[in-house]
What does this fold into?
Amino acid sequence: MPNAPDQRPNAGRVLCLTASVGSGHTRAAQAVQAWAEQLAREGSMAIDSIRVEDVLAHAHPLFRSIYRGGYLGMIQRMPTLLGWMYDKLDRPWHGREARFRVNHPCLSPLRELLAREQPDTVLCTHFLASEYLAQLRTRGEWNGRLVTVVTDIDVHGMWFCDPCDHFFVAAEESARMLELGGIDSSRITVTGIPIDPVFSRPLDRAACRAAHGLPQDRPVILFAWGGAGTGPVRDLFRDLLRMQTPAHIVAIAGRNESARMALEAIAAEHRGPLTFSVLGFTDRMHEFMAAADLLVGKPGGLSSSEARAMGLPLVIVAPVPGQEERNAAHLLEWGCAIRCNTPGTLAWRIDRLLADSTALAAMQSKARRTATPIAGAHIARALPAIRAREHAAASRRVGLRA
It folds into this structure.
């Protein structure tokens, strides 16, 4: 007898577009991919294919260099200017035509990718791809299905794009921002920011500490500075070493080898109540977060979502003006973070918090309460329904017009 047809809802061919300006946008796309593949293995949905592509890898080299290098350079050398630009550009629907005229000749390799792959749905975790593809649809140069996943808590004006079939956002206030900008509520779902499935699985703190050789008898402070390791990381680490509470510091420098070596040298010179582990890149961040009592670092959309999923309060230091400043405001309002604004007081703030077990426990509880560890699963499960809503003709052939 012939095999029975697969009756599971099918997302078809999904292309996730990210942009390699910091690691968060890419991790969000990879999280949706991981959840979709897991749900397909479990049998709750089907997917023909899903892959993640960096839109900047499909741009002309000069555009890629300016776009990525300009952003990272401003973070390191001109953060105040970056914040001013962020606020200046936060005007939904403004500047789209000018940006399209710049982007269109530079993104011809991306158009070639779409024509070659013919995806049923393009899911974007960076506004560059979302806005550009929406503009192609407006001009009749592409007739694909577009989904946007906003990877910050706040919704900047650059995320507004239309036509876009659906938006997934971090919080109820994020949805309201889109609605105020003219996006119909039927096209908005509040899921949280998608993070890897490993952050949804309960982990035992003592077991995670034992697995990584961390002490069981003192607080563990995780000092993590993002994938690029830029900014005042050395000065902040020195400030952290002024702590009087006996604690163990796990410093994670990411892929920045020079930062890792510098932190090791600083730790080696320390004489005091602290012990240390200094690491480079790790794919076990969920275990270190489960083992820790506090995370000291920057309030990125992904990292703060991962921390809350593990019930880990944040100590916010040196947020990037713009999106990280706005993320910080939400985290402080939710009660799962404190912020250190004054150089030199970081150690004092942490000593004070660790001495108040009631306050620390309340922050841990609020981190868990505001966590959205299965956001990626909700997004993945929605993809077949979004696909099914389209007209049959559009679902048979998606891509660039001849």
